[in-house]
Amino acid sequence: MKNIVVTGKDGQLGSEFQALAAHFPEMNFHFSDYKELDITNVDAVFGYFEEVQPDLVINCAAYTAVDKAEEDADKAEAVNATGVKHLVEGCEKFGSRLIHISTDYVFDGSKNVPYTEEDAVQPLGMYGETKRAGELAVLDSKIQALVLRTSWVYSSSGNNFVKTMLRLGAEREALGVVYDQAGSPTYARDLAVAILEIAQKEEKWPDTTALYHFSNEGAISWFDFAVAIMEEGGLSCKVNPILSAEYPTPTARPHYSVLDKGAVKKDFGIEIPYWRVSLKECITKLIK
Ligand SMILES: NC(=O)c1ccc[n+]([C@@H]2O[C@H](COP(=O)([O-])OP(=O)(O)OC[C@H]3O[C@@H](n4cnc5c(N)ncnc54)[C@H](OP(=O)(O)O)[C@@H]3O)[C@@H](O)[C@H]2O)c1
Fold this sequence. Notes:
Layout: E1 2-7, H1 12-20, E2 27-31, H2 42-52, E3 56-59, H3 73-94, E4 97-103, H4 126-139, E5 145-150, E6 153-154, H5 161-171, E7 174-178, E8 182-183, E9 186-187, H6 188-200, E10 209-213, E11 220-221, H7 222-232, E12 238-242, H8 262-268, H9 275-287
Parallel strand pairs: 1-2, 1-3, 3-4, 4-5, 5-10, 6-9, 7-12
Antiparallel strand pairs: 8-11
Bound molecules: NADP nicotinamide-adenine-dinucleotide phosphate (NAP).
NADP nicotinamide-adenine-dinucleotide phosphate (NAP) is lined by residues 7-8, 10-14, 33-34, 37-40, 60-64, 79, 83, 101, 103-104, 131, 150-153, 158.
Protein name: dTDP-4-dehydrorhamnose reductase
Domain RmlD-like substrate binding: 3-286
Organism: Algoriphagus halophytocola
């Protein structure tokens, strides 16, 4: 029986692991959020690892408020960079493997073909900067670890674009959504399933660290995503395409952040669902 620590258990991704745990009886999950394990506290990390003796740590804990991170940079740094460093140190000491989640927001979006793991990063804001620092804390270490970058995460729990669109779509007759930012949605359930599949294929792991990209299949704009959400949700709200300049945010978003998933599919033999199929599954669950 493998001891698996999941940090950030109450977030979108962490919640999916809790929902899936019963299907993986061979895995002994230890779920924690910052009340049980604040990853910014190095003593708490070492104490928790001492008690649990993890074989694998899946880090779902993160500071994810992209705009707020500009004025709250210390907190974003503490969770997304220093906290990850603490986990790496814990893994070093206790011989644990690590799967750490990162983001498409490490890119500036200047490409117009999918980003590979070899592409240069250039974050546009503090969130992306601190997430990049977290990536490096893992990738520069000597532990056995994978960094999985993902994008546009949504789920049936937590706050996300899908739930916001369903709420606004029920309240309004029309709304404007940007069509000059392209990417790929990721259903947190699909990401959690892929992570558990990857975790079990230990023989395919490199001896040290590696970086991979993961999202659902397909590439769309937020506008396309909103239109599909209204359709799947049975809502008549009209979605109008607008430019990012018409919807300014404190932090700029990459105009293009589609991730190339060729490496993770090839190295781990996983299949990734098409975004629209997963969206339908999530909305069906929400409506039930
Ligand atoms: N959401 C997206 O669109 C998106 C896109 C690309 C990549 N990602 C990455 O995917 C991963 C999962 O994202 P998500 O959407 O599941 O995030 P989320 O819903 O915001 O969940 C993150 C969880 O971490 C917890 N947390 C914060 N500080 C902590 C600390 N010091 N110690 C322990 N736990 C702490 C949060 O608790 P509180 O809520 O109480 O603060 C929350 O439960 C993250 O690494 C994120 O950067 C997300």
